[in-house]
Amino acid sequence: MSQQAQQQMSPREERGMQQQQAARSREWVMQPPVDIHENGTGITLVADMPGVSKDRLEVEVENDVLTIEGEVSIPMPEEMKALYADLRSKRYRRSFTLSRELDLDQIRATMKDGVLTLHIPKRAEFQPRRIQVNVN
């Protein structure tokens, strides 16, 4: 749009145009529900991501932030057409800031039937240890 045309727009029209541009650039993303369990040796995160396969899943840790992303893949025969879809987005994304007491080099991840399970152990110096008491 030319500068002259922008100058002729009312503030309301300009706001509407900005909202349309923002809506086009915004990506709809679903946040998967995640259960978090902690014990003495670490934490376990269980994320429900139905429709996401292992090859469409990304798990990253950067600067103590764990990010999980996945893209839903719903196979459909070519001759079928969806009349109604209950999904606004085909992407999941969720991030967590992790404690420095966790050993980020030892994260284990498994994916089964759309459920992602992450085990993050505590670093050895933060794990509980039993101290033996000697009697003299």
TrEMBL record:
Region of interest (Disordered), residue spans: 1-34
Domain SHSP, first and last residues per copy: 25-136
Alphabetical list of InterPro entries matching this protein: A-crystallin/Hsp20_dom, HSP20-like_chaperone, Small_HSP
Superkingdom: Bacteria
Pfam family, one: HSP20
Compositional bias ranges of the Polar residues kind: 1-10
PANTHER family: HEAT-SHOCK PROTEIN 20 FAMILY MEMBER
UniProt family annotation: Belongs to the small heat shock protein (HSP20) family.
Name of the protein this chain belongs to: Molecular chaperone IbpA, HSP20 family
Naturally occurring in which organism (per UniProt): Ectothiorhodospira mobilis
